[in-house]
Amino acid sequence: MKTTLSVLGYGFLIVVLVGCQKPVDLPSSVKESGRIESGEPYVGQGFALVIPPGWRNITELASGNRKLYLNGDGIGVPAMDETGAPLQVGMMVEMWANTKDSLEKGVESLISNARRNRRLEFVGEAKVDSYRLNDGTSAALLTMEFIKEGSRRSLQMKLLAKDSNSSGWIVSAFVVGGKDSTIPTADSTVVKLLRAHVTSFCFDPAKLATPKSADKGSRIE
User: Fold this and answer.
1) CB 107 within 8 A of CB 11
2) Predicted TM-score (pTM) of this structure
3) Nearest residue to 22 via CA among 50, 48, 46, 45
4) Contact yes or no for 12/66 (Cβ under 8 A)
5) Which of 162, 145, 163, 164 shows the shortest CA–CA distance to 154?
6) Is the CB of residue 48 less than 8 Å from the CB of residue 41?
7) Residue 12, domain member (yes or no)
8) From the centroid of its chain, how far is CA 90?
9) Residue 42 belongs to what domain range?
């Protein structure tokens, strides 16, 4: 059952990842020259996630609810998009303790906040898919596309989930390119591979699995 929700009001999600296993290759079916082709399984405190190898860990941006901030500009992805504009990519993990809001309420808040941001102009409608993570946890994946500040195209993905302690988690990824670029769009190879990394998130490290397709996790149709 695919569910289209509204939006959520947590924030970005970043986590201190400890322990790194050997990088693993993504299957050839989702590879494309100059794009993300492998992942590094990391285990953090209470969660696990497969992240793109070599991405910069910007520790000064990891504080408060934000546990990890990764910058991947030019690392496994093109430095410039097909229009010649700089391509920006990154991932974040955040956690909020004792979250009372449901996933649906969180999604609604995130969409509402985005609509109030005068720097962002929505392209199309926000999309929300229901997912079953590798450890069986229910999650919602919010995808939004924008024109940013009138000159850049931006795509944001936010995976929302709650752990057994009622803490709310958001795993975020973003791609920003030129206004006419097709890379910051839902069906691009870069975005599909980032989706695989985002939806590899789970709370049980023993259930962490290498992304096996451009659409990781179990999307609930």
Assistant:
1) no
2) 0.79
3) 50
4) yes
5) 145
6) yes
7) no
8) 8
9) 17-219
